[in-house]
Amino acid sequence: DAGVTQSPTHLIKTRGQQVTLRCSPKSGHDTVSWYQQALGQGPQFIFQYYEEEERQRGNFPDRFSGHQFPNYSSELNVNALLLGDSALYLCASSWEYNEQFFGPGTRLTVL
Amino acid sequence: AQSVTQLGSHVSVSEGALVLLRCNYSSSVPPYLFWYVQYPNQGLQLLLKYTSAATLVKGINGFEAEFKKSETSFHLTKPSAHMSDAAEYFCAVSLNNNDMRFGAGTRLTVKP
């Protein structure tokens, strides 16, 4: 079992650009959550997807959007990038309301 | 809304000494509580979780935590630190085992 995988590992963008991050959940998991971890801080909950729908959302602007595919994989999209969007983006998968397993993250740098 | 506060952004112990990482929570209803560990350039790994069963929770790598409702605390302990325990530790709270709210983290340094 490969566990939760994320791509790419690192990404550099400039302000105003758009970015898409990808996540493949652990085998057997149907729920994907996304977190933003700024340098020196704890992860902040962005949103969660279940059955291809956004089930829950944290306090993030509409520039942050996502999608879940029929195979349960997920994408996180961020539009109009700001310097403050620079962070480690973590994906976590779970089976319904059970334990979340985290991926290694995607490091996004906005210049 | 639920939240956690981790007391001490940096804790340093000697190898073989007791590890104590502090976490206090705020929640209007009985919460789920978690401790995660993060090694450099890696994701989060679950150490243990409290889900309203036993108040003393045993986790992986010799860690344990005790849920104390009267003190709204969920401190993480390990009797004897090992060099491999050096990492960032996060306490988290959730009402439904999903939307987790994390603390700011405590960096543990283990001195030889």
Rg of chain A (C-alpha, Å): 13 Å
Largest sheet of chain A at a glance? 7 strands, mixed
Please indicate the percent range of residues of chain A in DSSP E strands (runs of 2 or more).
over 45%
Q: Compute the gyration radius of chain B: what is it?
A: 13 Å
What's the overall average pLDDT of chain A, rounded? Answer: 94
State the separation between the terminal residues of chain B, measured CA to CA. Answer: 41 Å
Total of DSSP H or I helical runs spanning 4+ residues of chain A: 0
Low-confidence runs of at least 5 consecutive residues of chain B? none
Biggest interface and which pair forms it? A-B, 25 and 20 residues
Q: Structural class of the secondary elements of chain A?
A: mainly beta
Mean pLDDT of chain B: 92
- Ends distance of chain A: 36 Å
Shape annotation of chain B: globular
* Residue fraction in strands of chain B: over 45%
Short description:
Chain A is mostly beta strands and 111 residues long. Chain A is built from no helices and 11 strands. Chain B has no helices and 11 strands.
Account of the protein in words:
The complex is a heterodimer of chains A (111) and B (112). With 111 residues, chain A is mainly β. Chain A has strands spanning 5-7, 10-13, 19-24, 31-37, 44-50, 53-57, 64-68, 74-78, 87-94, 101-102, 106-110. In chain A, the strands form two sheets. In chain A, strands 2, 4, 5, 6, 9, 10 and 11 form a seven-stranded mixed sheet that branches. A four-stranded antiparallel sheet of chain A has the order 1-3-8-7, with no helix packed on it. In chain A, a hairpin with a 2-residue loop joins strand 5 and strand 6. Chain A is globular. Chain B has 112 residues and is an all-beta fold. Chain B contains no helices and eleven strands. In chain B, strands 2, 4, 5, 9, 10 and 11 form a six-stranded mixed sheet that branches. In chain B, strands 1-3-8-7-6 form a five-stranded antiparallel sheet, with no helix packed on it. Chain B is globular and about 40 Å long. The termini of chain B are far apart. The interface between A and B is medium-sized, with 25 and 20 residues.
